[in-house]
Amino acid sequence: MAHDHDHHDHSHDHPHGEAGAKPHRHPIRADQDDTITSWRAMEIAVRGLLIDKGILSADEVRRQVEDMDNRTPLQGARVVARAWVDPAYRELLLRDGNGACEAIGLDRGPYKLVVVENTDQVHNIVVCTLCSCYPRWLLGLPPDWYKSRNYRSRAIRQPREVLREFGTVVPDDLVVRVHDSTADMRYLVLPKRPAGTDGWSEEKLATLVSRDAMIGVAFAQQP
Amino acid sequence: MASTEAMPARFAPGDKVAVKAAFPIGHVRTPYYIRGKHGVIERFCGTYGNPEELAYARPGLPRQPLYRVRFRQAEVWPGYHGNAADTVDIEIYQHWLEPA
Amino acid sequence: MGGLPAGPVEATEHDYALWEKRVDALLVLLSKKGHITVDELRRNIEGLGAEAYEKMSYYERWIYAITQTLIQRGVISIDELGSRMAQVQQSDGKH
Question: Contact B56/C43, CB-based, under 8 Å?
């Protein structure tokens, strides 16, 4: 079945998922205007009812929103940087992802974390074709594109083409493994450590690790 | 009728398996594209509540062993363009797998 | 959805609006407290059907599915939901 994909330019003024960067601010969606949609009214109503019934408190909601806001790809980048400098940690990370998170003071998370390593032979990319499963406790909320119909339909079947659309060219002789996060595991890609980074501190190495590299649609940045 | 609490794991890494070519309705976590395909157990992931049951606020029993199963892309997608060794690795519950 | 024909991946992002973050928070809190599972969330989203699914945004689907689940479980009644929503919409969402 042929797919026509015009190689349409995804570049914006600023790259997305840039390593070490705070999330870029984009225009807030158009729903922040005067009229309230029924879905937003539903959210307000349901939250209010649950608070009235004592099932949750306004404070809990506020704290949970803050908690999620504080989770960013910078956390995942720390895990990657540690694995790059410490072979024993790398081994732990590949064997027991949750334990490895905990070992450096991060939340071990509610789901089993499977870490897949990019090497000279293999490139890994993660998708959830059924919904949008993502290691949120480690990386924060996923980008829209990860949840999009197009990514979920095509990353599984045409990973190399999708990678190219992200500007990531994987040589033909490398094996591409797509991981479909269909059940109770969550995935993190351990990108290859870029050349020319010998002797770098973990902190400095972490600046090369973008969210997109940990999903597998990008390589870690070159120094 | 009592369900057993958890099904024992019957597969081990390296085992060849086939995904059942079944198309029921309901909440199923086995993607359409993989049904009927053949793969190899990559690892055992643990035993979990059955999402098909949990989806209806039932206890999810019997709990099912979950595996990561590796498939060759060339066998899953007709006309796949890429390295013949490219794979897709998916988590599949035991009750969707048969020995192959 | 895997393998269906689809267009190029547009690397779009948006800052999540507060109401969206609150929906996300509802799911996390309610599942921690045992009032919903992600499985029920997903099954209710799947139950939307293709047309509604495409028309709704991600968190619109979530609030729909969370609310459906709470109704299914008898945590809230349709009557109180309807009344509260009407109140909210009459006061134009000043909450």
Answer: yes
**C1-53 pLDDT per residue, tens:** 888 888 888 887 888 999 999 999 999 999 999 999 999 999 999 999 999 99
Q: Is the Cβ of B59 closer than 8 Å to some Cβ of chain C?
A: no
Token pair recorded at residue C38: 């992600």
pLDDT bucket at A117, cuts 50 / 70 / 90: very high
Determine whether A133 is an active site residue.
yes
The pLDDT value given to residue A7: 38
Q: Does B91 touch chain A (CB under 8 A)?
A: yes
Residue A146 lies in a domain: yes
Its domain, for residue A199, covers 73-215
- Note whether A91 and A108 are same-domain residues: yes
Same domain, A89 and A172: yes
Mean pLDDT of chain B: 95
Which chains have 3+ CB pairs within 8 A of C? A, B
User: What is the rounded distance in angstroms from the CA atom of residue A193 to the CA atom of residue A124?
Assistant: 14
Is B55 within 8 Å of C72 when comparing Cβ atoms?
no
| pLDDT at C93 > cutoff 60 | no
Asked if the B16-99 domain carries CATH number 2.30.30.50, the reply is: yes
Examine the domain organization and report whether A64 and A84 are in the same domain.
no
What CATH superfamily is the domain C18-90?
A: Nitrile hydratase, beta subunit (1.10.472.20)
Chain C residues whose beta carbon lies within 8 Å of the beta carbon of residue A130: 1-2, 42
Residue-wise pLDDT tens digits, C63-87: 999 999 999 999 999 999 999 999 9
A101, A128, A181, A210: the catalytic one is: A128
Q: Please, what sign has the CA dihedral across residues A38, A39, A41, A42?
A: positive
Residues 6+ apart with CB under 8 A from C45: A131, C53, C61, C62, C64, C65
Q: What is the 3-state secondary structure (H, E, C) of B45-75?
A: EEEECCHHHHCCCCCCCCEEEEEEEEEEHHH
Asked if residue A193 is part of any domain, the answer here is yes
Residue of A nearest to C18 (CA): A65
Q: For residue A101, indicate whether it is catalytic.
A: no
